[in-house]
Amino acid sequence: MHDTLLLFGATGDLAQRYLFPSLLHLLRDRLLPASFRVVAIGRSEHDDDGFRTWLRERMDDGERGDNAALDDLLQRIVYHSIDLNDADAMKAALSRYADRAAVSYLSTPPDLFAPACLGLKAAGLLEDPSRLVLEKPIGHDLASARAINATLRASLDESRIFRIDHYLGKAPVQNLLALRFGNTLLEAVWERRWIESVDIIVAETAGVDGREGYYAGYGALRDMVQNHMLQLLALIAMEPPSEIDADSIRDEKRKVLRALRPMTAADAARDSVRGRYGDGVVDGVAVKGFQHESDVGTFVALRAWIDNWRWSGVPFRLVTGKRMPARATEVVVSFRPVSHWLFDRPSAERAPPNRMRMRLQPQETIELGLMGSLAAPEWGATELQPMSLDLTMSPTPKRRIAYERLMIDALKGDQTLFVRDDEVEAAWRWIDSVSDAWREAGVGTQPYPAGSWGPPAAAPFLPTTLSGNGKRK
Ligand code: BG6
């Protein structure tokens, strides 16, 4: 396992909230090598002790309580303040780490990927067997993603590049694969003949909160759909890989993403709704709306079509929004009605379809909606009732932060949960078709009050199973 982590963006929000806490947990659980150390790189001026004090103050209360582990982590950290646009400065400060098995982690905006790559190369930090980890977003559209990938490829082999989509590090997301390919019962009906529609929803109660600048350039489509939601879609829709290794899985995901039907301007009004939250109340707290001069969305609902044999004609509804009434990440698979209805009640039209509902966040639950006759039927009539089988794993296993798993895998060199260049580009190709279609058809954002499920026009895109019992994270 590699033992030197160069963490760029060390004073950023992501590092404070997830990356350092993940390292702390891994150290505490003795999952990192004894020689493990962190070279933290940021823009702010600190010496090593200054950075350690700064970081100690910013760790969650819970983490600060774990003093021994926190001390252990802090004493493994050294800090450098470096301008990533200055390749000479990077070389001067960082070449001393080049003789170790190093992993450079760019938790920076994408416009710094290319210059950072040049500086790392100059410092000898991209030589085999070193590795490079990149946070999303990889670019802003297909052209910029291609440019970033080309720069990376010129510096190191794809087998040493780790593009993060933190949803892939979440245990319930990995469970989607286990459910699909570990169960004859499911895989046998996992296709257009038996499945009527698939819903993927990622609802957040959080708002744009302090990330207005970034969000204005990205919006919900590029921030959430291009990566997390399309990865979920790809895992649900892909063909069985021949093996459970990184490239076999990524080959299949890429095929699904390539099969997404590009959205046209003619389809845009029927197959999408954009929204932006205004003032409202979430979790009993009054919150302000998202103001910006550009027409950027905080909510998007899309109907996606996968043009292949397995999924032809099956709508995949993707809905994500900020400032929703509840936090909920769910996949709902709705099956087709039985071919002939034998019972009196409820009528075939009113009987809810069999549904498999997999809630990934905030709690992992799995429910199967079936029909049964539980109550004593009236004389002469068989009355069916919907019933729900709870398939939730019990006891629920201890959950780790997604980044803990991803960090270990990057240090070990396992690419299975990281996104390959061609997947990123296939996803952007479809996203570009959506944003082009919006522009051509003039599809703008519609207002919705914070604390609601998006603009009224989005109602047909929302699964009827959606309930408001999610809790804020
Ligand atoms: C990030 C997005 O990638 O994912 C954020 O940039 C979003 O806007 C976050 O809030 C959601 O992640 P999670 O793990 O809280 O569902």
TrEMBL record:
Keywords: Carbohydrate metabolism, Glucose metabolism, NADP, Oxidoreductase. It catalyses: D-glucose 6-phosphate + NADP(+) = 6-phospho-D-glucono-1,5-lactone + NADPH + H(+). Residues 447-473 are annotated as: Disordered. Pathway: Carbohydrate degradation; pentose phosphate pathway; D-ribulose 5-phosphate from D-glucose 6-phosphate (oxidative stage): step 1/3. Its EC number is 1.1.1.49. It comes from the Bacteria. NADP(+) binds at residues 43, 83-84, 136. Gene3D superfamilies: Dihydrodipicolinate Reductase, domain 2, NAD(P)-binding Rossmann-like Domain. Residues 447-460 have a biased composition (Low complexity). Residues 7-175 form the Glucose-6-phosphate dehydrogenase NAD-binding domain. InterPro entries: G6P_DH, G6P_DH_C, G6P_DH_NAD-bd, NAD(P)-bd_dom_sf. Substrate binds at residues 166, 170, 204, 223, 322. GO terms for molecular function: glucose-6-phosphate dehydrogenase activity. Belongs to the glucose-6-phosphate dehydrogenase family. NCBIfam families: zwf. Catalyzes the oxidation of glucose 6-phosphate to 6-phosphogluconolactone. This is Glucose-6-phosphate 1-dehydrogenase. The gene is zwf.
